[in-house]
Amino acid sequence: MKNIISKVIVGSFVVGAVSFADAQKIDAKAKKILDDVTANYNAKKNSYFKFSFGIGTNGVVTKTDPGIYYSAGDKYKLKIMDTEQIFDGNKIYNINTEDMEVTIAKPNGSSTMFSPINYLSTYRKDYNVTYNGKKVVNGVNTDFIKLTPVKANGLKYVYLFVDSSKNQMVKLEQHGSNKDIAVIAIKEYKENQDLDPNMFVFDKNKYKNYIITEL
Questions:
Q1: Cα-only R_g, the chain
Q2: Among 184, 178, 131, 130, which Cα is nearest to 152's?
Q3: Which residues of 13-49 are buried (b: 16+ CB within 10 A; e: fewer)?
Q4: Tell me: the pLDDT tens digits for 152-210?
Q5: Neighbour count for residue 193 (Cβ, 10 Å)
Q6: In the chain, fewer beta carbons within 10 Å around the N or the C end?
Q7: 18 within 8 A of 154, measured Cβ to Cβ
Q8: Residue 190 φ/ψ region, left for φ over 0, alpha for ψ in the -120 to 50 degree band, beta for the rest
Q9: pLDDT for position 113
Q10: DSSP reduced 3-state for 70
Q11: Which residue in 201, 173, 181 sits closest to 93, CA to CA?
């Protein structure tokens, strides 16, 4: 199970503004759509997504599992299958219940999991961005945006589908250079909830029988 998750760990963790690479090409319409979505999420006290997570090959999803995602500011909690990831604003905690292992690390290029909104940050410096028109996804008329890596990173391209009337992400498709595909389709969205104050806190006492490695 952990090997499946490792295939969809992507990009670098980016907080705040970043500069554009000279060779990067970003379509103005696509940029406005993504910036509007980013502004919408940033304006909320917190956000919650319930989604389906699918994996497969050659563009065909063959396995689907549920996932949940909470975020507040730059903190987040993400759970897919047997793996949970918490970012408390300082460190990332990867918790694997199947193997009873916890890995703790500072954010870096290999530690950010495929999440409902991670590309809202990474597109700004890592991808060429094009607007590909309208497409109906799960009954929603969405704007279809394609991201192509500026430099080789194991991905062939990423598709983002946005409901511009609500400035919300509807679906993400990540297509690997090895023909693997990973898909997040958002099923439920909530905002400004009363969250547990410890939602984004890693409690080491809950994992006394786990192997804990701090990198």
A1: 17
A2: 178
A3: bbeeeeeeeeeeebbeebeebbeebbeebeeeebbbb
A4: 888 899 999 999 999 999 999 999 889 999 899 998 999 999 999 999 999 999 999 99
A5: 14
A6: C
A7: no
A8: beta
A9: 57
A10: strand
A11: 201
